[in-house]
Structure formats: structure tokens, C-alpha cells
Amino acid sequence: MLLIQVGEDPASSYYVQSIINTADKLGCKAELLSLPADSSQQELLATIKTANSDPGVHGIMIQKPLPKSFDDTEINLSVNPDKDLDALHPLNLGKIMMETDGFLPCTPAAVYFTMKYYGIDPVGKNLVILGRSNVVGKPLANMLLWKKMNATVTVCHSRTTDLADICRKADILISAIGIANFVKADMVKENVILIDVGINELVAADGSSSYVGDIDYNACYDKALAITPVPGGIGRITTSLLYLNLVSAAMLAAGINKSVDEYIGIIFSENHKKL
To answer: What's the pTM?
Structure first.
């Protein structure tokens, strides 16, 4: 697997390092290619083109965010769909819309499988997603609309009016906006389920850093029926699903007619605790 990072966004670097550490434990090869922050889009595209044609690279992941001057659409289109581990190529996004087999975007899939694992049923509940990015918000909303989930979803963003009021009506609130401790206790109701996708660096006066989510964990803890921690929550599951996609990509490259779905079926079977 080739990880490509442009610049040194702290939260991105934290996630990338987690991926590298996991590779060692799983016996996989994860190579990080760090491009300087002042790299051009053409340099990134040339790097992707080389990886696309390299049979030794089964999967490609481009760490976001990219510099604002870069064209995300062009970059996503440049990745070989069969190596697109974050499912950002339009062909892979289209499969999500159509509910057909393919790579699942890792972070939305982490939320999806967390809900399935803990028996969080969205049917008949108000589900609110904070954030409409192509990486999390949009694909996650579509996955939750699948017939196997049947969620009713409200997606909020920077232009949403009465945001706090919408949040207070949520039975399940998923935050993916990248603002540290944005969701406060007065923005949620009692017994809400809070799923935090954010990872944000906080730098103390002494220069030390720590990482927190979008949801003020300590402030919201007592009101929540369930809440995911940061770090150690959705992020770790996201990393695991990245490697599940890598296994799928490697089997595809080898022409093995076998799906990783059966492994997921085992994980979520009634007997999973006995395995």
C-alpha cells in the first residue's frame, strides 16, 4: 500500500502514523510518500500515475486534506479505481449510491460497522450528520440510506441555520467537521448517541499537544446514552477497514474470486463473541 501525504497537517500525520504502525502488526507493507507542502498538483498526479502502474502497489490512499489550490476531483479521478482504498473515485462512490459491491470509504464504513456491531438501529430515529465532505459526510449519508439501515438523515454544514436546535433533536449525532470540541452539552439532548469522527490537535501553553474530537467528550458524557472516544474510537476502526480494503484489492489484483464480505459476516454473526 502506498500512502501519499502532501504537507504535514498534524491530525493527518497522527492518522498516517497509526496506519504505518498497524501495517507492521498485520505483516503488510505500507509505504509513506511525503511530498513537501509546496508541491504542485502535477507532481502529485505524476506520483499517482506511477503507483497506478506498479504491480507491487495493491492500494493507494491519498491523505486529506490536500492544499486548497489542488483540484480534489481531478486527483480522485486519477487513482486506479481498483486501487482506490478510500473509495473516492466516482466509480466507487457510484457503487455506494447503487448499493453494489465495492470498496467502502473507510471512515464512513467505520461508523456504519460500529452502529451494526453495537445494535444501534437508526430506523424511526432522527439521525444528524455534521459535515458534508466527500470523504465522510456525503458517502456516510448514502450508506445510512441503504435498505439494510433505513435511516432518515439530516446533513448539516457551514450554511445550516439553527444548527444547535437541529442537533438537539438528534437521537443519533455523528460529527465530522474537524473543529475541536465543537459540540457542547447544550447542543444535545438526554440519552443521545454520539459518534465522533473528528481528530483535532490541541497545543498547550507549554508546547505539548493532545488530540480531541469534534464533540466535547467530558461535557457531553453524562447526557449521552453512548459516546465514542477520541483517540481510540472511530479512528482505530477506520484503520482496520483500510486494511480490509487492501485485502480486497490484493485479491482483485491476483484474480482471486473471493470476497472479504464473508469475514465481515463472521464478525457480526450472533456467535462473534465466541470466536
So the answer is: 0.88
